[in-house]
Amino acid sequence: MDSIFNEIFTHVLDTEVAELISLSEFIYFNQRDNPISNTPEFMKLMLTLESVVKGSAHLVKASNIIEKRAAEDLELEREEMFGSDSSEPDSCISHISSDLLDDGEDFICNIGSNPNLAAGQKQRSVCSGASSRTQSVFFKDEWGQTIAERLNTVFVDYFADSSTTSLIASEMDKTFMLIDKEKRGSYVLYYSPLDCPYNVYYGSTCGSMFSFVKKTDYKFKQYLNMENALLPGTYVDCAGYVIYGCSTVLTLGIRNAGVHQFTLDANLGMFIMTATNMRTPIKGKIYTIDESSSLSWNQVVAEYIDQKKKEEERLDYYQTGSVVSTLHYIIKEGGIFIDPASEGYKHGQTPLLFTAIPMAFLMKECGGECYGGNGLQNVLEMFPQTLHETIPVFFGSKKDVEGLKDMFRKYYESAH
């Protein structure tokens, strides 16, 4: 069985290497000549990241199972109370049996005690709120909120205790978290714990995104503030994303060292490299944009989409609701993602620090491009003004992105 497993992964790797390569082995052996990753602190950073992703994957899978059982239980109770052809009033939406809540909390706590997830002190923070998640899942305005909060806690607990970070910034928090002086490291972590929490309820793909910036000067470690932590993408050393789906996939980009993919092997309890030096096709076959806001798109975006629909080799529409899964698809197959400015969202909806910069970093490393703001600005060169600043953005295959960028350039030239 082991020989068959190795043979399968050898084909997936598309290399002549007959042995499986773990994430830690990749960093230690393949990146030893890279000054960015060839440090004990960076290795510790990656080991911490691996633990975080394992814990997050367990929680997402647990939530899927609990919510499915909760939905079945609610449906049975609804039929008993109102009949199969009746619709229940709003007051009954959150009614779930106490037995199910107890089962759900026990299930998540058992997973929290798994050695692959956390030590004992981490388990308490991961398990908190299990029942509230199950209770609130059927409130349409709160779906996914609590699972995102739990993933947020996992990130904070691990990295705050790892002695690798000085500041931690989450898309869910209003401000930075300052690490205690005795545990401060050289990195600033920016992350989005869950990009599409609604997808958890439906068992669909969702993901996390992150980036690490290294600041090594003494003043930064001793005198931290918001100003010296709002940094452009040119300072990013490492960025990536996690896909939670039928498998857990960690895609990692290291500055000047390419983009690499690792898949969690539950039996081995480690991430195995399944793709290396990934390159996005120079031209893709899909586009992603929120078509529901098409009436409020600016002229350039509207003309670009209309043009792509009429071309002989027209682009197909692709939409999952998850930016992370769309990024994953585009890296592998090519295409373009567009989040334009629109009525109600004049500054776009993509967080610059938590989403746009990691995407732009990965695109650069795998041969794609990413622009934002007025359509001509390289996202990696944009200086954040606030922690939660959002921008219009488009990224993807080089030819597709440059086509839209050229249309913006011609539009501004004609306006003058």
From TrEMBL:
Query: So what EC number does this one have?
Result: 3.1.3.11
Q: Which domain of life is it from?
A: Eukaryota
| One GO CC annotation | cytosol
Give the Fructose-1-6-bisphosphatase class 1 C-terminal domain ranges. Answer: 282-407
Which major enzyme category is it? hydrolase
Q: Which GO terms describe its molecular function?
A: fructose 1,6-bisphosphate 1-phosphatase activity; metal ion binding
Query: Could you tell me which residue ranges the Fructose-1-6-bisphosphatase class I N-terminal domain spans?
Result: 152-274
Which GO terms are recorded in the biological process aspect for this UniProt protein?
fructose 1,6-bisphosphate metabolic process; fructose 6-phosphate metabolic process; fructose metabolic process; gluconeogenesis; sucrose biosynthetic process
Q: How does it assemble?
A: Homotetramer.
Protein family membership:
Belongs to the FBPase class 1 family.
Indicate what this protein is called per its UniProt record.
fructose-bisphosphatase
